[in-house]
Design brief:
With about 325 residues, the chain is mainly alpha-helical. Helix content is about 45%, strand content about 10%. α6 runs antiparallel to α7. This is KRR1 small subunit processome component.
């Protein structure tokens, strides 16, 4: 088997002194774990590099790739207890670079903190649902776990950097976890159970205040504007003498001055014009119609009522009134 070497160069992320001390302390454990796979590991603190290389006794061709991933994780401040799990067959790792996804630095810091959550609660929920170890460090997110979990972790991280809150993806993962327990639903589509979240605050395109309307295209150029000489030729001023031109200009100036003077005089005189007074009109008392009673209308109603009910012959109004007055006189 050929001898190959893979290098992880550069200083580890985080505090330089603390990381170097931690790597120096745990390096014997790293060498022991790599020695089981017959992989040789060297740590150069002066150059600031970690190197892994195969030996003649190495039997697993993929072991060198796993050793490379191990030193990658160690360089990104992943603890040795978690990083050594990469040497297992059912484990994989994913280094997600998030530094170039958001241009604004303040916005990037806010979204990265949103991924971690208050006291690391969002990250802990993501770890429990995906069975992965997730470490957010600087401009990268290190994930370690099974392949299916790494796929979900990458999706959540990329969506968070695209301003989609991680709680939406965590809810979907929780629903998928419950659906996976039902053997009947394993072969069916889960789209009907998963929530569909829509963006409520869509960024509206700013429209300009002054909208310019495009003119229709014509192959002909626009007409040339008239020069001062053309205007003078059209009005006939071009053929006048100099003194006549001066006299005409003076007359125009005097006319303009007279108009301006009259305008100013009108504005001054406005202050001396008295305002129009409202005419004092006395309110006429409306004649009270309550005391007046239409006697004729009442008489007509009484006649009609008698004719309908009793069938009595029509009685003259004059005779009825005289009979009533005679009775009153006798009573007196």
């Amino acid at each position: 088997m050929e001898r190959g070497a893979l290098h992880q160069r550069g200083q580890p992320q985080g505090s330089v002194g603390g990381e170097e001390a931690y790597l120096k302390e745990c390096w014997p454990l790293v060498q022991k774990a790599l020695g089981e796979l017959y992989i040789k590991g060297t740590l150069d603190l002066i150059e600031g590099s970690m190197t892994v290389s195969t030996t003649k006794k190495a039997f697993d061709p993929y072991a060198i790739v796993r050793a490379r991933d191990l030193i990658k994780l160690l360089a990104r401040s992943v603890p040795f207890e978690q990083a050594v799990r990469i040497l297992q067959d059912d484990m994989a790792c994913d280094i997600i670079k998030i530094g170039t996804l958001v241009r604004n630095r303040e916005r990037f810091v806010k979204r990265r903190q949103r991924l971690i959550g208050p006291k690391g609660s969002t990250l802990k929920a993501l770890e429990l649902l995906t069975s992965c170890y997730v470490m957010v460090q600087g401009n990268t997110v290190s994930a370690l776990g099974p392949f299916s979990g790494l796929k979900e972790v990458r999706k959540v991280v990329m969506d968070t950097m695209k301003n989609i809150h991680p709680i939406y993806n965590i809810k979907a993962l929780m629903i998928k976890r419950e659906l996976a327990k039902d053997p009947e639903l394993r072969t069916q589509s889960w789209d009907r159970f998963l929530p569909s979240f829509k963006h409520k605050n869509l960024a509206k395109r700013k429209e300009p205040k002054k909208k310019t309307v495009k003119k229709e295209y014509t192959p002909f150029p626009p007409p040339q504007p008239e020069s001062q000489i053309d205007k003078e030729l059209a009005t006939g001023e071009f053929f006048l003498r100099e003194n006549q031109k001066r006299r005409k200009k003076m007359e125009e100036i005097k006319v303009k001055q007279a108009e301006a003077l009259s305008r100013k005089q009108e504005e001054r005189n406005k202050a001396f014009i008295p305002p129009k007074e409202k005419p004092a009109v006395k309110k006429q008392k409306k004649a009270s119609t309550e005391g007046k009673i239409d006697i004729e209308a009442i008489k007509d109603k009484v006649k009609k009522a008698k004719n309908k009910k009793l069938g009595a012959p029509p009685v003259n109004v004059a005779t009825a009134t005289t009979a009533g007055s005679e009775k009153k006189m006798k009573n007196r």
